[in-house]
Amino acid sequence: MTAAGWVRVDCHVHTVASGDAVLRVEQLACRAVELGLDVVFVTDHNETSAALAAQGRDLGVRIEVGEEVRTADGEVLGLFLSERIPYVLPIREVVRRIRAQGGLVGLPHPFDPLRAGAGAVADALCADGAVDVVEAFNAKVRDPAHNDAAAALASRHGLPVAAGSDAHDVTGLGAAYIEMPDFDGPRDFLAALPHARLVGELRPHAPRFPPRPRAG
Questions:
Q1: Which residues contact 20 (CB under 8 A, 6 or more apart)?
Q2: Is residue 39 situated within a structural domain?
Q3: Which superkingdom (predicted)?
Q4: By CB count within 10 A, which of 36, 84, 96, 199 is most buried?
C-alpha cells in the first residue's frame, strides 16, 4: 500500500488500439485495480483514440493520454496529450508537437536493440533540452543492461526517470511502475518525479503473433 497522497503509476501501456496488443481498456482497468495501480498512461502506437475515450471514465483507475510515436530515429513517448501525433514526422517535429500540446517528451527503451529506441540520437536530444523524462526501467527488455544504459543517460543530463510495463496483454500490466506523490497535469507530474521510486521486474509478455499450428 502506498503512503497517503502517493500513487502507483504505470507509464507505458498498450491497448488493442495499438494494433499489436490484446489488452482492452476494461481488462486494463480491472487488472490495474487488482494490482493496486492508481494511474495508467495508455501509450498506444501512433494512436490516442482509446486513451482519449477512456479518460475521465469511472474505471477505478485514472487514465492519462499518451502515445508512442514512431519516427525514423526511433520511438518517442508523448505524455499528457490531447490529440494524436502522426508517425511519419521527423523526431524533432514530434517533440515540437508534443510540447505544443503542453505534453511531456519521454524516451522509451532507448537502448533496446530489439525495438525502435532513439538511442542513436538520445544524447543530442537530451543535451538540447528536447527530453523531459527517460524510461529507465522497461519491463520488456531482455537484457537489464539496456535499462542501466537508459538510467545512465538520464543521469548524464540530469533528467528524471520513469518506469513502465510496456504491457500489450493483461499478464504484463504492472510489471513496472513508479510510486510517487500524486499529481495534477504535466508540470505537477514532472515536479513530483524526482521523488518517485521505481518498482519493476523483467517479465516476458505474450508474443505479438501466436505461432500458427503446424500442418498435419
A1: 14, 45, 168, 208
A2: yes
A3: Bacteria
A4: 84
The answer to the question of residue 214 being in a domain is no
Contact in structure between 13 and 23 (CB atoms under 8 Å): yes
* Domain membership of residue 113 as a residue range: 7-200
pLDDT tens for each residue of 68-77 = 999 999 999 9
**How many separate domains does the chain show?**
1
Question: pTM of this prediction?
Answer: 0.93
Q: In what order do the strands lie in the sheet with 197-200?
A: 161-164, 133-138, 104-107, 76-79, 62-69, 39-42, 6-13, 176-181, 197-200
b/e per residue 83-111 (b: at least 16 CB within 10 A): ebbebebebeebbebbeeeebbbbbbbbb
The pLDDT, as a whole number, for residue 208 is: 54
